[in-house]
Write a structure and sequence with these properties.
- This protein is α/β, with parallel strands linked by helices.
- The chain folds into 2 domains: about 40-120, Copper Amine Oxidase, Chain A, domain 1 (2-Layer Sandwich), CATH 3.30.457.10; about 125-340, Zn-dependent exopeptidases (Aminopeptidase, 3-Layer(aba) Sandwich), CATH 3.40.630.
- Helices cover about 40% and strands about 20% of the residues.
- It contains 11 helices and 16 strands.
- It has helices spanning about 5-10, 20-40, 45-50, 105-120, 120-125, 155-170, 190-200, 250-270, 280-285, 300-310, 310-340; strands at about 45, 55-60, 65-70, 75, 80-85, 90, 95-100, 100-105, 130-135, 145, 150-155, 175-180, 200-210, 220-225, 275-280, 290-300.
- Strands 12-9-13-16-14-15 form a 6-stranded mixed beta sheet, sandwiched between helices. A 5-stranded antiparallel beta sheet has the order 2-3-4-5-6. The chain has a 3-stranded antiparallel beta sheet with strand order 1-8-7.
- A hairpin with a 4-residue loop joins β4 and β5 (about 80-85).
- α4 packs across α8, α6 (about 155-170) packs across α11 (about 310-340) and α8 runs antiparallel to α11 (about 310-340).
- It starts with a helix and ends with a helix.
- Residues about 1-40 have low confidence and may be disordered.
């Protein structure tokens, strides 16, 4: 199955082609070793983490690991990058791994994943809340993912969703602008330039997904990995991944935003939770404000596509995005009240 232009465009900036053969294999090994040393930092045991941040319980049953506060639970899967926070999947920057007999997590994930979720005011105290920029994916000559036999085009649906999310947020007196208001071609650099020119406090790019595997289904929310960490789709770090992009100035806020968008979208759509993922898509790495890219189902999946074609499902997507944004904005306001 040929991937649509939407898939090629979005993934080309995030995935790495490492070549083939012995030379490429040797280069890969060098990259892997470099990546490990670069992002390792200190390995903190989960039991130490529990004591340091006053979790009320730490349990380990085989590879099923859990940290609990009074109101929140992290459930880790040992030897993977998967963690669920209050039953929402989040992809860590590095696997939880055994070290000297204890399960450990990287410092980078403590600082950029765990702490923003258990202490959002700290992550949000310097962020703004007045202007939201919504970015309907694709447009004009770039249709994105499509199933023309069924009349589905990502560019058209993304614009509809963005316009309807704007309508809801405006009812709550939120200033909202769109990077495109019609079916025009808008390059990625222009989208970022508009967000900068308008002074965006928040940027959310809205898309539908596609994959060669027709069984791929569900909701994804993408945020920028910290500098030096791999994207979720790769175990390796290239030299480009070590670059600190403008979006990395908001790593903590990105985590909070990504979580609340994913939580709300799963709540309303009830599709498979594919998690808060780490990607270096152009628009989320090059805007200087908290940013996320949401994938609201797979046009290439029969299950998702059937739902996407219904107004009821689109209503739920709109509610999910709007509620996730509103929750985030309210938390920023609360953080500023606590840190005047």
């Amino acid at each position: 199955m040929n991937l649509p232009s939407h898939h090629r465009l979005k993934k080309s900036g995030a995935h790495r082609a490492f070549g083939a053969g012995l030379l490429a294999g040797a280069w890969l090994a060098a990259e892997a070793a470099s990546a490990g040393s670069f992002i390792m930092g200190d390995a903190v045991s989960l039991s130490q983490l529990s004591h340091r941040y006053n979790f009320i319980a730490y349990t380990a049953k085989g590879k099923n690991l859990a940290l609990r506060t009074k109101f929140n639970t992290f459930t880790f899967e040992g030897d993977t990058r998967k963690v669920e926070f209050n039953n929402i999947l989040i992809w860590l920057n590095a696997p939880v791994a055994r070290h000297w007999g204890s399960w450990t997590i990287r410092d980078m994930d403590v600082d950029k994943t765990i702490l923003p979720l258990i202490n959002p005011p700290r992550a949000l105290k310097s962020e703004g809340w007045r202007l939201v920029v919504l970015d309907p994916g694709h447009g004009g000559q770039d249709p994105g993912a499509s199933d023309l036999r069924r009349g589905l085009e990502e560019k058209r649906i993304a614009l509809e969703l963005a316009q309807r999310v704007r309508t809801i947020l405006q009812k709550y007196k939120v200033d909202v602008r769109l990077t495109r208001g019609g079916d025009q071609t808008t390059d990625l650099g222009q989208r970022c330039l508009l967000a900068h020119r308008w002074g965006a406090d928040l940027f959310v790019s809205i898309h539908l997904n596609a994959a060669a595997n027709a069984n791929s289904s569900g909701i994804e929310t993408h945020i920028l990995p910290p500098a030096g960490c791999p994207i979720t789709a790769s175990a390796f770090v290239s030299s480009r991944d070590r670059v600190a992009f403008p979006g990395n100035r908001h790593d903590g806020a990105n985590m909070v935003l990504g979580y609340y968008l994913q939580r709300s979208l799963i709540k309303y759509t009830r599709l498979e939770d594919r998690g808060v993922r780490r990607s270096r898509f152009y628009v989320i790495r090059n805007v200087d404000c908290p940013a996320a890219l949401v994938e609201c189902g797979f046009i290439s999946s029969r299950n998702d596509r059937t739902k996407i074609m219904t107004s009821a499902y689109r209503d739920n997507v709109v509610r999910g995005i709007a509620e996730g944004i509103q929750t985030y904005l309210n938390m920023v306001k609360r953080a500023q009240a606590l840190n005047p």
